[in-house]
Write a structure and sequence with these properties.
The protein is of the alpha/beta class and about 425 residues long. It has 2 domains: about 240 residues, 3-Layer(aba) Sandwich (Rossmann fold), CATH 3.40.50.970; about 140 residues, Rossmann fold (3-Layer(aba) Sandwich). About 45% of the residues lie in helices and about 15% in strands. The chain is built from 14 helices and 15 strands. Helix 1 crosses helix 2, helix 1 packs parallel to helix 7 and helix 3 runs parallel beside helix 5.
């Protein structure tokens, strides 16, 4: 095992290399292009025994990935933001094919307005597609999650594609120390893909339920896919246990940080969870009983593990790096549904922050704890709150004023 300084993108590429991915259909998009460039360089130098094909769009790329897996080859690809949405038709389709490949999504906020900065609305748009989702907070998690994703998706009790998600810019281009495991140990953890009887091959026709007439058959296949997704919870825990034995790193469907005696819990996912850990440590140093609960698996949603972790807690500050327009934070609604039947439920407070890559400051974490503590005292959660400062609002109003002046000037010239 060696340790290197790697960006999140290069960590993802190393995951594909160590997994011995046979086929990489590709289409570039910021900020994931470095993943594909790295793999292409390795293939060109003979350091990675794979075939790469550049397609004309993400729609074709995802179609190609799904088709390749059905022939029995291990497949890897990557995309981001508008690219994920461009291929959304096939995201749903290949999940229905039960085609277990790994797709790394480097999260980037969606247009419009257009931006290159990250939030989670792109990956959460695929929440109900049938793809499993693993969310990463560090570059080490990215590499390890690619390996875990193959074990998870290729298991005969699952057979589903997996999205491994990392935040654009904050993680994709940030260099962190990453331990690269030995090839032999990875081969022990992740044997070659065995498609079994599901493999398409010439001269040996088989039937897949990809086209049906009537709601009865459709209902059967959709629910089978749902049950397969639920099976992934057990398989993930089994794979994680073996991963820890081989590599010394432990991953659970939900990561708890200083939650044992905590009264207030931050609930969030992605790279900003590392900022929450720092806030927890600082708040602990002044006597505040605060902790962090970080869902690593979003689909399937680990409801039982979350309920266990939040039993006896007084308040939850849910931090959503997304917004379901007309409803609010997606993680907030997911958590509320998970805790609906829980006796003595904690007060759940919704915060929406980090949209379009906006930072969440240390002071805002402190403020969220204060707001949640007040909600605990009153027994009533306030309305969902956007993390946005007075200074930002003043700056925004100033820009709007400039725009109005320029608009009037333009009308005057006509």
């Amino acid at each position: 095992m060696i340790c290197k300084l790697l960006t999140g993108n290069r960590a993802a590429a190393w995951g594909a290399r160590l997994a011995r991915a046979d086929y990489i259909p590709a289409f570039p998009i910021t900020p994931q292009t470095e993943i594909i460039e790295t793999i292409a360089h390795w293939i060109d130098e003979g350091r990675m025994d794979s075939r790469m094909t550049t397609l004309e769009s993400e729609h074709s790329m995802i179609t190609s990935a799904g088709a390749a897996v059905t022939t029995g080859v291990r497949t890897f690809t990557a995309t981001s933001s508008q690219g994920l949405l461009y291929g959304m038709e096939m995201i749903y389709t290949v999940a229905g094919w039960r085609a277990p490949f790994v797709l790394v999504n480097v999260s980037r906020a969606l247009s419009a307005p257009l931006t290159l900065e990250p939030d989670h609305n792109d990956v959460l748009a695929a929440r109900d597609s049938g793809f499993l989702q693993i969310h990463c907070a560090t570059c080490q998690e990215v590499l390890d999650s690619v390996l875990l994703a193959y074990r998870l998706g290729e298991d005969e009790k699952v057979r589903l594609p997996v999205i491994v998600n990392l935040d654009g810019f904050y993680l994709s281009f940030t260099r962190e120390p990453v331990e690269i495991p030995d090839d032999a140990k990875v081969d022990q953890f992740l044997p070659p893909y065995n498609p079994g009887e599901t493999r398409f091959r010439a001269g040996d026709p088989i039937s897949h339920g990809v086209a049906v007439l009537g709601g009865s058959q459709y209902s059967y296949f959709r629910y089978e896919t749902h049950l397969a997704s639920l099976n992934a919870l057990e398989i993930f825990e089994e794979a994680s246990k073996e991963f820890e034995e081989l590599f010394g790193r432990s991953y659970q469907p939900v990561e708890s940080y200083r939650t044992e005696d905590a009264e207030v819990i931050f609930f969030m996912m992605g790279s900003f969870a590392t900022k929450a850990k720092d806030a927890v440590d600082r708040l602990r140093s002044v006597g505040r009983k605060v902790g962090l609960l970080q869902p690593r698996l979003l689909r399937p949603f680990p409801v039982k593990a979350i309920v266990r972790a939040l039993a006896g807690k007084k308040g939850i500050a849910v931090i959503d790096q997304n917004i379901s327009l007309g409803k609010g934070g997606i993680l907030y609604t997911e958590l509320c549904s998970a805790l609906y039947s829980m006796a003595d439920k904690p007060v759940i407070v919704s915060f929406i922050g980090g949209l379009g890559g906006r930072d969440i400051t240390r002071e805002e974490f402190y403020e969220m704890v204060a707001v949640t503590m007040k909600a605990i005292e009153t027994g009533e959660a306030p309305p969902p709150r956007l993390l946005y400062s007075k200074e930002e609002l003043i700056q925004m109003k100033g820009l709007q004023s400039i725009a109005r002046v320029e608009q009037r000037k333009g009308r005057g010239k006509r």
